[in-house]
Write a structure and sequence with these properties.
It is built from eight helices and two strands, in the order αααααββααα. By secondary structure, the chain is an all-alpha fold.
C-alpha cells in the first residue's frame, strides 16, 4: 500500500466560492499532459514518496535557505561586505516576489490540478488556495538567483583607496571562493528539484513552478539594480560598529579615507660660509 495514499480522494474537493476560477491556464495541453505523466511516474515510485513529500514541503526550502546563509557567512568571514550587501538585496527581492505572487495568483485564479483531475495521486495535504504561481518555486528561484548574481558580480573584490591624488583602486587577489561556486551549483540543482517535487506530489502544474521561478528571477534582478545605493551604504556603515554585520570583527575597513602620507622634513640648506676679513 502506498504510504501517502490517504492524501488521494475519490471525489474532487469543492473549492470555496472565493476560489472559483479557471481549471488550468495555457498552455492547457502541455500542462495537463506533463502533470499526468509525472503523476503516473509517481504512482510507480512509491519508495520515493516519503522523501518527495518532505522535500516538497519543507526540506527543499530549508536546504536552499541553508545554502543562502552559508554564502552570506563566507562573505562575512572573507571580509567581502559588498557581497554580503548584494545577498541582502537578493533576499529582499525574494520577499518582494512572494508578495507579487499573491497578486498574480488572485488575478489568474487557477485552481489546483487535483480539482481538474480528481483521480490524481496527491502526496500532500490539499490546499484551498490558487495554484499559479507556486510559492515554493518563488523561494527556489529567488534564493538561487541571488547566489548566482553574487557569484557573477565583482562584489567579492575588496576595494581600497589608492595613494593620495590617484583614483580609487581595486585590491588585487580577491576573487570568488571556490566553495561559493560549489554552493551556487548546488543551489541551482536543489531549486530545480524543488520545482519538480511540487509537480511530483500533485500540488502544481508544470507551468505554475516555471512561472514562480521566473517571477522571482525578475524580482531579484530588478531589486539588485539598487546595488550602487547598497554599496554606498556599505561604505558608510562599514567603518562603524554596525560593520560587524557585514564583515567579521577585527577586519580593517575596505573603504575609508586614505591614510595620510608621511611628511618628509625638507633638508636644511647649508649655511653660507662667512668670508674672513682680509
Amino acid at each position: 500500500m502506498e504510504p501517502f495514499a490517504a492524501a488521494q480522494t475519490s471525489t474532487p474537493p469543492s473549492p470555496p466560492a472565493a476560489l472559483t476560477g479557471v481549471r488550468v491556464l495555457p498552455p492547457k495541453g502541455l500542462n495537463n499532459s506533463l502533470y499526468l505523466d509525472l503523476n503516473r511516474f509517481s504512482r510507480h515510485t512509491a519508495w520515493a514518496h516519503g522523501f518527495m513529500h518532505a522535500y516538497a514541503l519543507w526540506l527543499g526550502p530549508v536546504l536552499l535557505a541553508g545554502a543562502f546563509v552559508a554564502v552570506y557567512g563566507i562573505a562575512w568571514w572573507r571580509r567581502a561586505p559588498r557581497a554580503a550587501a548584494l545577498l541582502l538585496l537578493g533576499g529582499i527581492g525574494t520577499v518582494v516576489a512572494l508578495g507579487l505572487n499573491q497578486l498574480v495568483g488572485h488575478a489568474a485564479k487557477e485552481l489546483r490540478p487535483y480539482v481538474a483531475h480528481p483521480n490524481a495521486l496527491v502526496l500532500v495535504a490539499k490546499a484551498n488556495d490558487y495554484s499559479f504561481p507556486s510559492d515554493h518555486s518563488v523561494v527556489a528561484g529567488g534564493l538561487t538567483i541571488s547566489i548566482l548574481l553574487v557569484l557573477a558580480s565583482g562584489a567579492w573584490r575588496r576595494r581600497r583607496h589608492a595613494r593620495r591624488g590617484l583614483p580609487q583602486a581595486e585590491a588585487t587577489g580577491a576573487s570568488v571562493p571556490g566553495v561559493v561556486r560549489i554552493l551556487a551549483a548546488a543551489s541551482v540543482m536543489l531549486g530545480l528539484f524543488l520545482c519538480l517535487a511540487r509537480v511530483y506530489v500533485g500540488a502544481h502544474y508544470p507551468g505554475d513552478v516555471v512561472a514562480g521561478y521566473l517571477l522571482a528571477a525578475v524580482a531579484v534582478f530588478v531589486v539588485s539594480l539598487l546595488r550602487p545605493f547598497a554599496y554606498w551604504a556599505v561604505d558608510v556603515v562599514e567603518p562603524t560598529a554596525l560593520g560587524t554585520l557585514l564583515r567579521r570583527p577585527g577586519a580593517e575597513p575596505t573603504l575609508g579615507e586614505p591614510a595620510p602620507e608621511p611628511q618628509l622634513r625638507p633638508a636644511l640648506a647649508p649655511e653660507p660660509q662667512r668670508r674672513s676679513a682680509p
